[in-house]
Design a protein that fits this description.
The protein is of the alpha+beta class. It has twelve helices and 15 strands. It has one domain: LCP protein (Aminopeptidase). The radius of gyration is 53 Å and the shape is elongated.
């Protein structure tokens, strides 16, 4: 190539630009001159060859990358959306306390209401009385009060409406640390009277009512009577029927026209009229009144057992009928309050020792009874002291065990 005049824009000879464009014979080419690359063995890595960069994950690129040498935590996938389920109706927890509160109000309110309908009687005797004693003593009296009987019931019983002037049931119920004891006093028991002489204990009720009867019982036994409870015909019949019947277990067939009674031997459910006849009959069995007082305790205990069944409290209709029937023909002393009445109801339930006052035929009249001077004090003193009643002193008829 012919030499071009200088100044024509062609690099001058000897300059790097000239050597780069036209080549140079210099043994030491400039550092930025194009150099010949020696052939490399097959498979050998070339330091300046183009390398394939690793593929970057989409998540890393989206997040702006991550410093070298750190470990990326993979993103957690969102949980699947739950499937919609049909809502089922559920009772709120707040409803349960409300129901329990209403039940409690009903259980307390019904007896309190019927308490206001119960007749009160002054049963405190005059004169000297035994001092207060441990435990609680109730005098239970069954009268012929029948003013709450229906016309149909009176026709069956063949009894007029009476005011409760006679009694054939006298029971001392004791509760305390020594246990529960139910002691019957036969109505034919002779007791001393202040004017001298003797009379049957039930005559005190006929002539002087509750105060005189309490005085006679305390004088005979030395037991201080804390409360007085009188049950009439109607209370027995209507209460038994309100329970739907009670179980009695006669030990023999019993047919007593005077008591309107005709039943077979063995345990059986009976209605109110039959239960009353069973507790009043005295002309069928050998020991007459002594067997009768044992049956009276049996009926009273059966009522107590029925009263404590769960069905009494969970059935509001039954609960109302029982309280209504029990309050309809009952009298209590003026000092008794609703709490005392509740304690009396509890005392009627559960296990208790059932006895008849230890007795003997009266020397003056074999058809009358007197307290056995040898065995009766042991029973009386156990009740007075609130101690365990001795077994020998507690028998169903009051007669000594053979």
């Amino acid at each position: 190539m012919a030499d071009r005049p200088q100044g024509s824009g062609v690099p001058e000879k000897g300059t790097p630009e000239y050597d780069w464009l036209y080549g140079s014979q210099s043994k030491n080419p400039p550092s930025d001159a194009t150099q010949r690359v020696e052939a490399q063995p097959v498979g050998a890595a070339r330091p300046d060859e183009t390398r394939v960069m690793p593929v970057t994950r989409r998540e890393a690129r989206g997040s702006g990358g991550q410093p070298p040498g750190t470990t990326r935590t993979p993103a957690t996938a969102p949980p699947p959306r739950p499937k919609k389920q049909r809502r089922r109706p559920r009772f709120r927890l707040g409803l349960i306390p409300l129901v329990l509160l209403l039940l409690l109000v009903y259980l307390v309110g019904v007896p309190l209401y019927h308490w206001t309908t119960i007749d009160k009687v002054d049963a405190a005797p005059s004169g000297d009385r035994p001092a207060d004693q441990p435990g609680t003593n109730y005098l239970i009296v069954g009268s012929d009060k029948a003013d709450d009987l229906t016309d149909e019931q009176r026709e069956v019983l063949d009894t007029p409406e009476r005011g409760g002037t006679n009694t054939d049931t006298i029971i001392v119920l004791h509760t305390g640390s020594g246990g529960r004891t139910m002691m019957s006093i036969p109505r034919d028991t002779l007791v001393e009277v202040p004017d001298g002489g003797t009379q049957m204990i039930n005559a005190a009720f006929a002539s002087g009512g509750a105060p005189l009867l309490v005085q006679r019982v305390e004088a005979l036994t030395g037991i201080h009577i804390d409360h007085y409870v009188e049950l009439g015909f109607g209370s027995v019949i209507n209460t038994v029927d309100a329970f739907g019947g009670v179980e009695i277990c006669p030990k023999q067939d019993m047919k007593d026209p005077r008591a309107r009674l005709d039943i077979k031997k063995g345990c059986q459910e009976v209605d109110g009229i039959t239960a009353l006849g069973y507790s009043r009959s005295r002309y069928v069995t050998a020991l007459s009144d002594l067997d009768r007082v044992a049956r009276q305790r049996e009926v009273i205990s059966a009522l107590g057992d029925e009263a404590m069944t769960p069905w009494t409290f969970v059935n509001p209709v039954r609960y109302w009928r029982i309280n209504d029937a029990a309050s309809g023909a009952i009298r209590v002393d003026e000092e008794m309050n609703p709490i005392d009445m509740g304690r009396f109801a509890l005392a009627m339930t559960g296990d208790s020792k059932t006895c008849t006052m230890p007795n003997l035929p009266a020397p003056s009249d074999p058809n009358r009874l007197v307290a056995d001077p040898d065995r009766a004090p042991a029973l009386f003193n156990a009740i007075i002291d609130d101690s365990t009643v001795p077994g020998k002193a507690c028998t169903p008829t009051g007669r000594a065990r053979q």
